[in-house]
Design brief:
This protein is α+β, with helices and mostly antiparallel strands and 110 residues long. The protein has helices at 2-8, 43-50, 68-73; strands at residues 14-18, 34-38. A two-stranded parallel ribbon has the order 1-2.
Length: 110
């Protein structure tokens, strides 16, 4: 990821993560200009969103942990016990979080 960012120079780097389980964003988020999380949609749907043909409407159905230590402390039978990842602009990757292309948080209604 770091090499990709260096290679791209001023061009934006978009990371698309196919999630089956929560991921630790801390390892790659600082090098990404945008992150798309998808849960098994078609490649066409992802490309439509990246190219502006579709508007993002989804919000996280899970919490994304701050780091691996948080994952190790997680109690699988306790809901919402993770300390969630917080990016440098203050966005918390908590259950229900999502942003539009302007960086505005998505409303509760989708």
């Amino acid at each position: 990821m770091i090499n990709t960012k260096k290679t791209m120079g001023e061009k934006p780097v978009i990371v698309c993560v196919t999630m089956h389980n929560p991921v630790v964003c801390r390892e790659f988020e600082p090098y990404a200009d945008a992150i798309l999380a998808e849960f098994g949609v078609s490649t066409k749907a992802v490309l439509d969103m990246i190219s502006g043909g579709a508007v993002p409407k989804g919000r996280l159905p899970v919490q994304l942990p701050k780091d691996m230590e948080t994952v190790e402390r997680h109690q699988e039978d306790v809901a919402f016990d993770l300390e969630v990842y917080k990016d440098e602009t203050g966005n918390c990757y908590d259950y229900g979080f999502g942003l539009n292309f302007q960086g505005e948080e998505l409303s509760a209604k989708i």
